[in-house]
Amino acid sequence: MREARPRFHVDKARGLELAQAFFAASRSGDMSALGAMLADDVSLHADGGGKRPALGRPVFGIGSVMKLHAQLAEVFRKRGSTLVHAGFINGLPGFVTREADGELQTTALDIENGKVAAIYVVRNPEKLQHLHRASRGGFCAAVHKRSRRSASSRGS
């Protein structure tokens, strides 16, 4: 279990820059660039909701996360993954992608001290219905609206 740490808010522009760099490195297989972005105790959490493939449990530590991303980079190279939008996902810098199966996926990055401390991937189509509707028009507004609502609910 991750030790509780004080939360440091990353500058919005820097957060978006890191999210775009993370997308590029993770999809191209640039493990050197990806590794430079990750905290030693990084964790990766994925939610497929039993409807799409996802990790059964979180992955902890830079070595394990890097190994997983090396495998994923091969999948992305063969099947593709398209950046739809870089922005804030539930208050964290991240991005929305359309995967090879045509489904949307979100990736949110918790950044601490300039490094990615946690990666949150949502692949569960039930949790992404609002994005599917929004992708047919007005996509950015729906992502930001959802992010503001989620961020305000965390403060309660």
Short description:
It is built from 5 helices and 6 strands.
Q: Estimate percent helicity.
A: 40-55%
What coarse outline follows from CA principal-axis ratios? globular
Sheet of most strands: 6 strands, mixed
Strand order of the largest sheet: 2-1-6-5-4-3
Question: How many DSSP H or I helices?
Answer: 5
Report the strand count. Answer: 6
The ordered string of helix (H) and strand (E) elements is HHEEHEEEEHH
What distance separates the N and C termini? Answer: 23 Å
In the CATH scheme, the class would be Alpha Beta
- CATH topology description: Nuclear Transport Factor 2, Chain: A
Mean pLDDT: 81
User: Runs with pLDDT <50, length 5+?
Assistant: 140-156
Topology:
Blueprint: H1 12-28, H2 31-37, E1 38-47, E2 59-60, H3 62-79, E3 81-89, E4 92-99, E5 104-112, E6 115-122, H4 129-134, H5 139-154
Parallel strand pairs: 1-6
Antiparallel strand pairs: 1-2, 3-4, 4-5, 5-6
Helix pairs in contact: 1-2
What descriptive keywords fit this protein?
single chain, 156 residues, Nuclear Transport Factor 2, Chain: A, 6-stranded mixed β-sheet, globular, disordered C terminus
Textual characterization of the structure:
The chain is α+β, with helices and mostly antiparallel strands and 156 residues long. The protein has a single domain (12-154), classed as Roll (Nuclear Transport Factor 2, Chain: A), CATH 3.10.450.50. It is 41% helix and 29% strand. The protein contains 5 helices and 6 strands; from the N terminus they run ααββαββββαα. The chain has helices at 12-28, 31-37, 62-79, 129-134, 139-154; strands at 38-47, 59-60, 81-89, 92-99, 104-112, 115-122. A 6-stranded mixed sheet has the order 2-1-6-5-4-3, with helices on both faces. A hairpin with a 4-residue loop joins strand 4 and strand 5 (104-112). The longest helix has 18 residues, at 62-79. It is globular. The two termini are 23 Å apart. Mean pLDDT is 81; it is low at 140-156.
